[in-house]
Amino acid sequence: MKHFFWIVGLAMATLFVACNKNDYNEQDQIRIDNQKIEEYFTAKNITGFTKDPAGFYYKVIEPGTGATIIDSCEINYGYRSTLVGSETNIEKVDSAVNYVFTIIRGLRLSFPKVKIGGKIQVYVPSPLAFGQTGNAKYPGKTPLFFELEAKKLVSSFNKETQIAIEDVAIQKYITDNKLTDSLTKDPKGYYYQIKDPGTGAAISATSTVTVNYTGKLFSGSTFDSGTGKEFGLSGLIEGWKLAIPKLKVGGEIYMILPSPYAYGQYGAGSIPRNTPLIFTVKVTNAK
């Protein structure tokens, strides 16, 4: 069966989770949670875990011998979850089915580290899980432990086909808004305009960036924005990981992303499924 609580988790823990009213800082919370995880490792003499640049810890138990797992794969998987420091299962599910890109970020980034048939253990800080608010099963601002098994490849979403379908609507938007001369189409299928290349430090796909950003639908409505927000690029939507490194610190970019580089078939929050998105992003710092 589909486990749609993962999709709820995605909406809460995507790029735009932060509730500004509480001055919540995702990177600060990752550091706080990871201190708890590392203290637990020390107390229990737990070794063998690798820290991913996105901020979670993982250990491959069995690498698997089946198909490679990517964001667009629909997989059958099993999982067990606990709070860090607890032996009591929050959930133990033998069989769930979801597209990888709909799962909470910490697990979405973990599954591709094994192939089908593989098993992996993961300690996830709360911003890569259920954020500051949590949900009915998982408390907010709390690191979690997951034991995952990738059992079967159910199907693989055809990213190229969806990009081609959405490109018709994107080109119409570009024409209607007289943007043809200002935008460049990347070979991967998204569009961008570097408004300011920046003169500061270079940015990589694993950088932690501080940004001012606005995200809009083609209707013109703003679905989110932020000023001075800090994010780890490796944990964000693919379009940001691809486009932001075209800048240096101080730079600004306008981009139109087809949904496979954003929130795909399921959308997130107020963002509909299969919807191209517009972002304007200025990078003020990177480390």
TrEMBL record:
Gene3D superfamilies in UniProt: 3.10.50.40
Alphabetical list of InterPro entries matching this protein: PPIase_dom_sf, PPIase_FKBP_dom
First-level EC class: isomerase
EC number: 5.2.1.8
GO molecular function terms attached to this record: peptidyl-prolyl cis-trans isomerase activity
Cited Pfam families: FKBP_C (PF00254)
Domain of life according to the entry: Bacteria
Keywords: Isomerase, Rotamase
Keyword Isomerase carried by entry: yes
Annotated PPIase FKBP-type domain residues: 51-154, 206-287
Catalytic activity: [protein]-peptidylproline (omega=180) = [protein]-peptidylproline (omega=0)
Family according to the record: Belongs to the FKBP-type PPIase family.
The protein's name in its UniProt record: Peptidyl-prolyl cis-trans isomerase
Organism: Chitinophaga skermanii
